[in-house]
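so my prof wants the structure for this chain in the C-alpha cells format not the other one, which i didnt know existed until like an hour ago. anyway here's the sequence
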Amino acid sequence: MLVLTLLALLGQDAIAAANEQDLRCVAAMAAASETVSDEVKSGMAVGIMYFLGRIEGRSPDFHVEAGLVRRFSESAWAEQIEADLERCGAQIRDKGIALTAIGNRLTEQGF
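here's what i got, hopefully its the right format
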C-alpha cells in the first residue's frame, strides 16, 4: 500500500512539474505578445492555446489565473522569458513538423 501511495505522489509531482513548465510557456508568450507584430502575435495566441490545452488535458481543475498571478509575481520571471520562449517555441516547432509529416502521409494515401 505504501508503494502505491508513493507512486501516486510521484505521479502528482510529475503532473505539477509539467503544468508549471506549460504555464511558463503561456506566461512568456502572453508577455512577449505585447511587443510583436500582429502576425507573430497570432502565432503566439495559437501557442498559448496549445499549452493551455496541455494543462487542461492533464489537470482540468487547474486554476490558470492563479498560476499566472503566481508566475508574474516571481521576481525572476522576466529574466526567464527568453529561455522559456526558446524552449516553448522548440516544442511547438517539433509538433508542427510532426503534424506536417502526418499530413503528407495522409495526402500520399489519397486522403
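also thought this was worth mentioning. The mean pLDDT is 90.
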